[in-house]
Design a protein that fits this description.
Layout (H helix, E strand, L loop, with lengths): L4 H50 L10 E2 L16 E6 L4 E4 L14 E7 L2 E9 L5 E8 H37 L1 H12 L18 H48 L3 H33 L7 E4 H18 L3 E6 L4 E4 L1 H18 L5 E9 L2 E8 L30 H11 L3 E6 L5 E8 L7
Parallel strand pairs: 1-3, 8-10
Antiparallel strand pairs: 2-3, 2-6, 4-5, 5-6, 7-9, 10-11, 11-13, 12-13
Helix pairs in contact: 1-2, 4-5, 5-8, 6-7, 7-8
């Protein structure tokens, strides 16, 4: 069973409300009991003071008196009169009461205490007068204050109980209405027939859902760009692979039809050439796909860019010598960068491969590496045909080959170079070389200190 956000919110809010209700009810009951006790205790204190006020200054000899059992006010028939016991300084009982037996004469200072008599509990206050001639005890049953407490708390507790019963349904209805925008988003997503959901963030989305919908919109936009990218990639790859496949099939058909060994060998050589071209194209496609999927570099190190260039020049020296192309390298030694040696090697290999592919026989390819102003620059110059005036804006796009290009490149080399340069926070510039051909300039941030 899937968890319900509405149910979870209702349960948590209901639990919080019940907890607050219990705390509030307990505090209210304690506070009311405290106030009622204060009122009744003050009544006993005032009663004792009133008795002292009517007593003579000097106690008179005589028998013990009892207070009459009658109500002074006719309408006050429900309240019970306090029980009073009065003694002189020697402990002789001057005023007795019928409700309680003679209380113990302990001569202590003024204080309250509770006694039980006749299945009833009594609150007793005792004290001396100012001249310590009279000692009084005033007692009142606790039944009255308990009854008053019930009368005070019953309506309040009933109201709180009714509130406790009514709050959960109200919270449920309120939360259901508050979650209505979320259900609206769900319905709009379920009703969408598009391959990707439309933009969710609009004026009707609540502020609380804004970060969520914007995050979903960003995710959908990345998915859309990725799908569009893959569609173009698949279409371009299919288009480029069609030509070498057609050439390979044609040459193999001609091999089967040819009767002369020399003709068959020539057709097989052309088929091998088409196969090599297709293999190179597939390799570059896989490399471009792998590079474009990267979002950050995992094997970053501080290295010298000229060491990567020297390795690439050694690997391509035989190919250059086969066409009598002169390779040269200039550097000033201030060329430390931070990056992936493997990816930078692929980048330099592709730049040099393009230069050799477009340079003429007995041509020149010059590489310059140098650092200045917190950046390292790699330049690859050749004396080939160079870039046409309309080419620089499209250089680096997939399968784009400049007009007048020599060789049989696939147009993916500069795309791979641009993708790797972007991963290294670098940039590419294209213009005409001093040698008369093309110049490709790579600018990377300079690593001035070793990593910690």
């Amino acid at each position: 069973m899937h968890p319900s956000l509405n149910r979870r919110l209702v349960l948590r809010l209901a639990a919080g409300i019940v907890l607050v209700w219990c705390v509030a009810t307990g505090w209210m009951a304690w506070r009311s009991l405290h106030e009622v006790n204060e009122i009744f205790d003050q009544m006993l204190v005032r009663t004792a003071a009133s008795v002292f006020a009517v007593m003579p200054e000097t106690p008179t000899a005589g028998s013990t008196a009892r207070l009459p059992d009658k109500h002074v006010i006719k309408s006050d028939r429900t309240a019970q009169r306090p029980a009073i016991a009065l003694r002189n300084a020697h402990g002789r009982l001057l005023i007795d009461n019928e409700e309680l037996p003679a209380l113990h004469f302990d001569r202590d200072d003024a204080h309250f205490h509770t006694v039980t008599y006749g299945k009833r509990r009594w609150r007793v206050f005792q004290r001396w007068d100012r001249e310590r001639q009279y000692w009084i005890q005033v007692a009142a049953p606790l039944d009255e204050r308990n009854e008053l407490m019930r009368k005070l708390l019953a309506p309040t507790l009933l109201a709180l109980l009714a509130l406790l019963v009514l709050v959960p349904p109200t919270v449920f209805v309120g939360l259901r209405g508050g979650l209505k925008p979320l259900r609206r988003l769900t319905r709009s997503l379920a009703a969408s027939t598009m391959p990707l959901i439309p933009v969710l963030t609009d004026a009707q989305v609540p502020v609380e859902l804004g970060p969520f919908t914007r995050a979903v919109d960003c995710l959908v936009e990345r998915l859309r760009v990725g799908l569009e990218h893959e569609r173009h990639f698949t279409a371009d790859a299919a288009h480029e692979l069609r030509h070498p496949l057609a050439a390979l099939r044609l040459e193999l058909d001609l091999v089967g039809r040819s009767e002369e060994a020399a003709a068959r060998a020539q057709h097989l050589q052309r088929a091998q050439h088409a196969l090599d071209r297709m293999q190179r194209l597939v390799t570059q496609l896989l490399m471009l796909a792998r590079v474009e999927q990267l979002t950050e570099l995992a094997d970053v190190e501080r290295l010298r860019l000229v060491s990567v260039v020297e390795t690439a020049l050694r690997d391509l020296s035989e190919r250059a010598a086969a066409r009598s192309i002169e390779l040269s390298l200039d550097h000033d030694g201030n060329d430390f960068v931070r990056g992936s040696r493997g990816l930078l090697d692929i980048l330099v290999q592709n730049l040099l491969d393009n230069a050799l592919r477009h340079a003429p026989e007995r041509g020149q390819v010059n590489v310059r590496v140098g650092g200045a102003a917190d950046r390292v620059t790699l330049e690859v110059n050749d004396n080939g045909a160079g870039f046409a005036s309309t080419d620089p804006a499209q250089l680096g796009e997939r399968f784009h080959r400049p007009a007048g290009s020599l060789g049989e490149g696939s147009g993916l080399g500069l795309s791979i170079v641009r993708a790797i340069a972007t991963l290294h926070h670098g940039q590419l510039e294209f213009d005409r070389s001093d040698l008369g051909g093309a110049r490709v300039r790579l600018i990377l941030p300079q690593a001035t200190a070793a990593p910690p």
